[in-house]
């Protein structure tokens, strides 16, 4: 066959070929029509913004302890009052948000990566590999998540892991209980996708396994992955809060929404100082709700099974 | 002409709960360079499995090529390693299927799907592959190549997609193109365009085509050589004119009779009585005997061998064996 001519073919046209470009745009347009999802997204964006930027403008960002100033109710100086050690609650709330959101994102990314790779391998190759991966996943599934987290958290306390590292360990723990769900979903998709005729057509072209798996199959599960990813951020934030609330997660003085509520877990604080626990509680509640609403909106747009009209 | 590929005594069986299905049963044929060989026969007679056996893609573990030889160049395709076979697929031998709609990945652009084998087998870089993809799209008779390259399969019609499949199949300049009922799923007018595209691509590169079909109109239009299969076996083969003018096997005659002829209005379209026997019930008899109009006693007892009935014309039928003996 003749040597190809390359003259005059603009780079832009090549880039336009990138996978699913127009499908994305189409989906985003559709998503915009869903008011609730847009609101959810706006709230998440707002949360990220003020958590990461807000503390920069706070005069109390150094988190200095000032016992003379303890348990102040909300005022013009301290919009959300101060805590037991006289620190500004609003500033700590935003700093905690940074940690909680980061933990949510990072453990999501980790569990998505592990789950996707294992799920693809499992569903495509089947056989012994599949058996091993899925039995491990089953094992993690049969024990409910929270007890596992508690055991791991207790072990961490027992082994006196320095507080600085606990943050990363918590992310790791959350992804350990998070990946089996992802792997299962991806695997089940793989099992049906691998039988599609276009995969036979890919065989026929002599494509390598790596290419088939990551170029041809992965894009087909992408919509599903995005939806699970979004929803799992919410789950991770909740789990982290629960862990920290029980004193098994990230330790003070590093603030998280969970351990802020924990710091107010006595009757007097509960009855007399609602500014200590309502703000972090609301932050968790609203953030997770917003993420779930947005995730549902995404699913409506992207999940091919629910959306046959496109 | 040199033969490009030689299939000798190929047998492919499927194991099912009820027994062994001899989907392809001891068949031999060859395809010469630049030749179009048509394989015809009713559905279920083993045409697709023959193609898949050549590609080395019979569904394991149920199906297995149990014997024979497929000589391609100096290699036996049944003996070479998986890696070697992978390099032949899409490069030296390519195949297109009946359903163009489902043969393309729905989330990857047409352009990328054409570029892929070019980058893989021909080691072209992205830019060269893209330029070549556009040429190929134009080659198969589709205009606005750049726009087509950027679109997704669901945005194109079946006929266009089948031509894209042809573009992909011929992209690496294969020596053999297998087309498994490439027009069956298409409208009649589109069929003609797709066949034309096939014919043109063949003329430009001197590749051989193995065309599987049950449509004798397609055979008449495309074939140099015709192989008639029935229940996993070859029952007749010969040059297209010879076979159409002097069909020997009653099955071939039946097929030809059941083909509508333009301008001639038959009272009722002929159809061969009965149906293909279940592959599990095959006995030592001629597989066609219970549907055959000229069945003689020996047909129920023993199977006829494929033998020459005229120069370059083979048939497996007792009617001619006896003529030969007499
Ligand atoms: N995966 C399979 N498992 C069992 N039997 C099969 C399988 N694929 C094909 N067969 C059998 O092989 C025979 C030939 O099939 P095929 O080559 O697809 O026929 P066709 O001539 O219509 O292309 C059929 O009788 C079918 O029952
Ligand atoms: Mg078939």
How would you summarize this macromolecular structure in one to three sentences?
Chain A: Belongs to the binding-protein-dependent transport system permease family. Chain A is 71% helix and 0% strand. Chain A has 310 residues and is mainly α.
Notes on the structure:
The complex is a heterodimer of chains A (310) and B (326). With 310 residues, chain A is mostly helical. Chain A is built from twelve helices and no strands. The two termini of chain A are 39 Å apart. Chain B is an alpha/beta fold. Chain B has one domain (3-92, 174-325): Rossmann fold (3-Layer(aba) Sandwich), CATH 3.40.50. In chain B, α4 packs across α5 and α7 runs parallel beside α8 (188-205). The longest helix of chain B is centred in the middle third of the chain and has 18 residues, at 188-205. Chain B starts with a strand and ends with a helix. The relative contact order of chain B is 0.14. The mean pLDDT of chain B is 90. The A-B interface holds A 1, 4-7, 9, 13-14, 16-20, 22-23, 196-198, 200-208, 211, 215-216, 219-220, 222 and B 55, 57, 85-91, 94-95, 97, 99, 102-109, 111-112, 115-117, 120-121, 124, 126-132, 134-135, 146, 149-150, 152, 165, 168, 172-173, 205. Magnesium ion binds at residues 47-48, 180 of chain B.
Main attributes of the structure:
heterodimer, A: 310 residues, mainly alpha, MetI-like fold, 12 helices, disordered N terminus, disordered C terminus, B: 326 residues, alpha/beta, Rossmann fold, eight-stranded mixed β-sheet, four-stranded antiparallel β-sheet, binds adenosine-5'-diphosphate, binds magnesium ion
């Amino acid at each position: 066959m003749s040597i190809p001519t390359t003259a005059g073919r603009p780079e832009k046209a090549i880039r336009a070929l990138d996978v699913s470009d127009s499908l994305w745009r189409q989906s985003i347009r559709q998503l915009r029509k869903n008011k609730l999802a847009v609101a959810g997204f706006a709230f998440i964006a707002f949360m990220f913004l003020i958590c990461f930027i807000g503390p920069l403008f706070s005069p109390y960002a150094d988190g200095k302890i000032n016992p003379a100033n303890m348990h102040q109710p909300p005022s013009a100086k301290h919009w959300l009052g101060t805590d037991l050690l006289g620190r500004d609650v609003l500033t700590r709330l935003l700093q905690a948000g940074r940690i909680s959101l980061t933990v949510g994102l990072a453990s999501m990314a980790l569990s998505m990566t592990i789950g996707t790779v294992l799920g693809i391998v499992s569903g495509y190759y089947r056989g012994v590999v599949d058996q091993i991966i899925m039995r491990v996943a089953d094992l993690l599934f049969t024990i409910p998540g929270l007890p596992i987290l508690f055991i791991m958290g207790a072990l961490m306390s027992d082994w006196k892991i320095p507080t600085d590292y606990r943050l990363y360990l918590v992310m790791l723990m959350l992804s350990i209980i998070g990946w089996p769900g992802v792997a299962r979903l991806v695997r089940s998709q793989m099992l049906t996708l691998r039988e599609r005729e276009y995969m036979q057509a890919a065989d026929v072209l002599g494509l390598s396994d790596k290419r088939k798996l990551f170029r041809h199959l992965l894009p087909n599960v992408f919509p599903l992955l995005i939806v699970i990813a979004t929803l799992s951020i919410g789950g991770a934030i909740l789990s982290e809060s629960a862990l920290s609330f029980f004193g098994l997660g990230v330790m003070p003085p590093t603030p998280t929404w969970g351990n802020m509520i924990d710091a107010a877990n006595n009757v007097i604080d509960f009855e007399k100082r609602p500014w200590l626990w309502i703000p972090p509680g609301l932050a968790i509640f609203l953030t997770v709700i917003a993420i779930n609403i947005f995730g549902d909106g995404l699913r409506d747009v992207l999940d091919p099974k629910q959306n046959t009209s496109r | 002409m040199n033969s490009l590929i030689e299939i000798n005594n190929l047998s492919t069986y499927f194991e099912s709960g009820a027994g062994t299905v001899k989907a392809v049963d001891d068949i031999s044929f060859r395809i010469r360079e630049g030749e179009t060989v048509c394989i015809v026969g009713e559905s279920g007679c083993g045409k697709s499995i023959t193609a898949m056996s050549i590609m080395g893609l019979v569904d394991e573990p149920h199906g297995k090529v149990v014997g024979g030889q497929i000589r391609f160049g100096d290699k036996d395709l049944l003996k070479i390693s998986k890696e070697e076979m992978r390099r032949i697929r899409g490069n030296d031998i390519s195949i297109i299927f009946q359903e163009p709609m489902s043969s393309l990945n729905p989330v990857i652009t047409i352009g990328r799907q054409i570029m892929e084998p070019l980058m893989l087998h021909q080691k072209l870089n992205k830019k060269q592959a893209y330029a070549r993809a556009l040429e190929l799209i134009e080659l198969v008779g589709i205009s606005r190549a750049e726009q087509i390259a950027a679109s997704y399969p669901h945005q194109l019609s079946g006929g266009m997609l089948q031509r894209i499949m042809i573009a992909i199949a011929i992209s690496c300049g294969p020596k053999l193109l297998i087309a498994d009922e490439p027009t069956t799923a298409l409208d009649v007018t589109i069929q003609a365009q797709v066949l034309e595209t096939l014919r043109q691509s063949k003329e430009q590169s001197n590749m051989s085509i193995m065309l599987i079909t049950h449509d004798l109109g397609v055979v008449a239009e495309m074939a140099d050589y015709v192989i008639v299969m029935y229940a996993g076996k070859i029952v007749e083969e010969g040059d297209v004119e010879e076979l159409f003018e002097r069909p020997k096997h009653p099955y071939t005659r039946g097929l030809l009779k059941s083909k509508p002829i333009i301008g001639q209005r038959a009272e009722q379209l002929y159809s061969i009585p009965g149906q293909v026997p279940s592959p599990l019930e095959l006995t030592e008899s001629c597989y066609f005997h219970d549907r055959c109009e000229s069945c003689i006693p020996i047909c129920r007892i023993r199977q006829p061998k494929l033998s020459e009935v005229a120069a370059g014309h083979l048939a497996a039928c007792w009617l001619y064996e006896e003529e030969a003996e007499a």
